[in-house]
# Entry
Amino acid sequence: MRLRLTFSKDGPLTYTSHLDLLRVWERSLRRAGVPLAYSQGFNPRPRLQPAAALPLGHTGGAEWLDVWLERPFPVGRFARAVKPVLPAGLTLAQVETVPPKGPALQTLVVAAEYRVEVAGPLDAAHVPDDIERLLAAAELPRERRGKRYDLRPLIEALWLEDEGPERLVLGMRLAARAGATGRPEAVVDSLGLSGHFVRYHRRRLILSGGG
Amino acid sequence: MRVEWERLERLLPSVRKPGRYVGGEYNAIVKDWEAAAVRVCLAFPDIYDLGMSNLGLAILYDILNGLPEVLAERAYLPWVDMIAALRRAHIPLYSLESRHPLAEFDILGVSLPYEQLYTNLLEMLDLAGLPLLAAERDARHPLVLAGGHAVFNPEPVADFVDAFVIGDGEEAVVEIVRAYEEVRSAPREAQLRALARIPGVYVPRFYDVRYHSDGLIAGIEPRLPEAALPVRRRLVPVLPPPPTRLIVPNVDVAHNRAEIEIQRGCMRGCRFCHAGMITRPVRERPVEEVLDAVAAILRQTGFEEISLLSLSSSDYTAIGELVAAIDRRFAGTHTSISLPALRADSFSVRLAETIARGRHTGFTFAPEAATERMRRVINKPISTDQMLAVAQEVFERGWRTIKLYFMIGLPGERMEDVAAIADLARRVRGLGRRLHGRRAQVNVSVNTLIPKPHTPFQWVGLESSTTIREKQSLLRRELRGRGLKLDYRDTEATLLEAALARGDRRLGRVVRRAWELGARFDAWDEQFDLGAWLRAFAEAHLDPDFYARRERGEHEIFPWDVISTGVRRRFLWREYRRSQQEETLTHCREECHNCGILATYGDLRSAQWQCPAQYEKRRE
# Structure
């Protein structure tokens, strides 16, 4: 049986890496006493499949995780067992069954929507123009880990949500496909705002087929 | 005032592994700060990654938070990048649970399991904004208490700590918070007098130490009636129920697994072993209690691995039964067990086989010495033939890697005893090769003996650097080639550890000066700064060799004589003499050797004690 979990990650867990978060999930699900399916071999691990790694320091509002169970188990009971044994910062929002043989969750993700909060003090007057200019650019050449790439096609949408002297809130939707993943830090840097303290929140992941 | 999340958040992206500075772990206990009558911060003066597996602190955390009026939180020393970030931002060291500055707690309880943490203790106090010297603190500051194995010689850090808790802390810690409630608004001196009345508590300022002109101690005298001499360590007659709501870290740490203590103390009497001498007598947790606790721990933590802790697993009376029962009860739950400190015998190999379930990562033995003569000297008698037979069995059962632990610098050791280490390792590799060919691997780890206080070797000096280096280079020459790996520690780090372990009060100045000169994280090779330490010794006109390397006289007054473990000095001296005669002593379940424990603590005796039912007080 395969379940798809929607959860949020914030608070102290913001600083737990992707790999460590999987371990947190494993232990939480073991505490819940749900019938986890395990991998084969000398070092069996519960079969879990995350949608997309959330970088250390980012919070997530609607993250996804697929969990395999070794036998059928009521979804409602699953949620009731798991919710009370999660650590601070991890909240289970929804559990649904998905076809066991369906495609891997990672391959379904096409984009991610972010809320990016840039802490002040700052002068935000030029930001709307900067956004316009960024969106109007034919290409935005950048470099990451020694590799050149074009940021522009990875920005599907970029907008200003709130502005003031204390903070500036941007919304953005960035491509998140294998080999074509936009990073919100790169957008912030392209807007000349990377000198500020920035909070990155991934609001939701967008699956192919409009999921 | 709590450290605000918004301030912290700005530092965290720039430091390594920020998850260790934010708390929020499952089973961490966050009590109402305002409602608590006594607030204790349990502190480990090294990084979170190491401190999270400190079972002593986990036990005290459980006991203190079990008291309704008491709140206990945790703090660890941040890594150097976070230390710098906190200093730059003027953020004081804070507790993980509620992010209150350490200075706002009533009591700071520091765990000192080993000596290389002393400069970290100062770093912690300084980061907390507290005066380093106990004499410069008053009732406005938290009481700084320390416990753990290193404080069986508390003297080198006596300047910085208000009171030491010697031995088992389970009962003492409750008495301390109760006493504190009575004197919380009293001046510091009165607070400490109240603590000094609690058995097992040592308040260094209430003692005077006099020295001869040659630097030896002339006498130790208590200044107050409350100050006991010696301070007798605390001993819990029955192991209290183990903590089961262990904190589950959100980031990877060393020893990332659950732990349960199955036994305290060791019946073997290895003459070099500090832990074995200071934790007598053996107290075994009953099998049923262990099984129930393991079930509760797994249910409440979700850990996939649990370590059954003791100084010598194979000596737990019902270890076979326990391992089989755990194997049965938790089969199918994907839980693995680790069983450290196994003896080199066939029974232990079968035990390891049961818990390995086909996962043969590596098998560890600690023969400690490679010749039968030296093993008699240290009282760890086992024949070379038996060791080879066991190694053979280990390889036959599927392991390809054997790890061997040895010591050099043992009293009476000759070059041939050291050469025998290489010889033994090669013979073990030979056995492995016959079964596994070129994949057979023998890893040899060689430590230098640090003669520890309260052991039969307390009279012995640390071997000279020249000789240690000669022995190490002999091993380097001899342990070359495929399937052999040698690992040993730097001789200078050993010198410091020995000097601090065997030091007196005057070392307080050295510890402080070394810290001022930048020493910290002395247990970390890449951070250890020998230069700072040597300069600090020189400025204090003290010689590390005087403490570390000097052979001591039979009747010399030791700095640690202010503490009594219950094991008599007479017994230790007899054991030292026996080691010189290369004589062994039977283990203390077979017969009582009158070490002093039953004479001192006999009235506490419980069914958990593994001392013989009858013991005879022989004439001295």
Summary: The mean pLDDT of chain B is 96.
